[in-house]
């Protein structure tokens, strides 16, 4: 049977029963400290003699820093079986870390308190991810790499860069940030100051308490174009070509419009008709078949 009491109700506790914690595959280990993976499940055991009638036992659990006993909810479950009382914590988070204590009450006697058990919750910084960008100087290609970790806990870590198995000591910038979930993530940047070569292997290596060995992520240089044209020059060339095309279209349109206008004017002149009146004239040179002179009075021109 489980019930809620205040700390004053168990102020006379004197004996500490050994408390053990078990995560997946760790049942039966008696530890003063244990690690649990974030998102996993943890089982705390508060043992008592097997001959004790477990149906008459009441168990209490609390954690340092809390002012009340732990209560059952969707992630915390309490059970009492023969030989022990158990606390199941499901989907462990970083906030669950701390020192846990238990007490059991049987036949009006309560025992517990003591040093308790320290639960450490960790999150591994894997998988790692490398993002690459290249840049150009003169006719050579250079490289920038960025290694990103997954969210991890606790904070302490060690990150190194390697080139073909040899550790790199320069050109590295590493930044650690804390997330809203009390986790941490790291972004480490490497700028290669020498022209890159085909087949070169760059490796980001991370050490953390949550993993037994270093986590590695590698980037292999492939398809290096030593005479590659810088991207910004390509963009400028494309823009220049577009400007030339636009200017050519404008000039062509202007020239064709002018030619068409002139052509229409010439057609207009050829198709015009002049109507006039002839009068005899004594002051002009004889024209015509009769040798008479005429004065031409233009009346109008019809187009």
UniProtKB/TrEMBL annotation:
It comes from the Eukaryota. Pfam families: C1-set, V-set. Keywords: Cell membrane, Disulfide bond, Glycoprotein, Immunoglobulin domain, Membrane, Receptor, Signal, Transmembrane, Transmembrane helix. The chain crosses the membrane at residues 233-252. PANTHER family: BUTYROPHILIN SUBFAMILY 2 MEMBER A2-LIKE-RELATED, T-LYMPHOCYTE ACTIVATION ANTIGEN. This is Ig-like domain-containing protein. The keyword Cell membrane applies. It comes from Chiloscyllium punctatum (Brownbanded bambooshark). CDD domains: Ig, IgC1. It is a single-pass type I membrane protein. The keyword Signal applies.
């Amino acid at each position: 049977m489980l019930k809620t009491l205040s700390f004053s109700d168990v102020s006379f506790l004197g004996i500490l029963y050994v408390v053990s914690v078990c995560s997946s595959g760790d049942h039966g280990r008696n530890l003063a400290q244990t690690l649990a993976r974030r998102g996993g499940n943890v089982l705390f055991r508060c043992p008592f003699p097997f001959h004790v009638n477990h149906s008459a036992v009441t168990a209490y659990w609390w954690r340092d820093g809390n002012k009340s006993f732990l209560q059952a909810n969707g992630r915390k479950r309490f059970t009492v079986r023969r030989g022990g009382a158990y606390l199941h914590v499901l989907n462990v988070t970083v906030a669950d870390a701390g020192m846990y204590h238990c007490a059991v009450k049987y036949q009006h006697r309560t025992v517990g308190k003591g040093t308790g058990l320290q639960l450490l919750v960790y999150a591994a910084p894997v998988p790692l991810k490398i993002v690459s960008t290249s840049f150009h100087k003169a006719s050579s290609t250079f490289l920038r790499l960025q290694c990103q970790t997954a969210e991890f806990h606790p904070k302490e870590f060690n990150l190194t860069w390697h080139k073909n198995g040899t550790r790199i000591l320069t050109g590295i910038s590493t930044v650690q940030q804390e997330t809203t979930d009390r986790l941490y993530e790291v972004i480490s940047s490497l700028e290669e100051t020498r022209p890159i070569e085909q087949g070169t292997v760059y490796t980001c290596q991370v050490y953390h308490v949550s993993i037994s060995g270093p986590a590695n992520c590698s980037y292999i240089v492939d398809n290096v174009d030593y005479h590659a044209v810088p991207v910004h020059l390509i963009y400028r060339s494309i823009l220049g070509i577009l400007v030339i095309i636009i200017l050519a279209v404008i000039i062509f349109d202007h020239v064709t419009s002018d030619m068409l206008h002139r052509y229409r004017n010439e057609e207009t002149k050829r198709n015009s008709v002049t109507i006039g009146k002839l009068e005899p004239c004594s002051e002009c040179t004889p024209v015509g078949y009769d040798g008479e002179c005429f004065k031409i009075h233009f009346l109008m021109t019809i187009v």
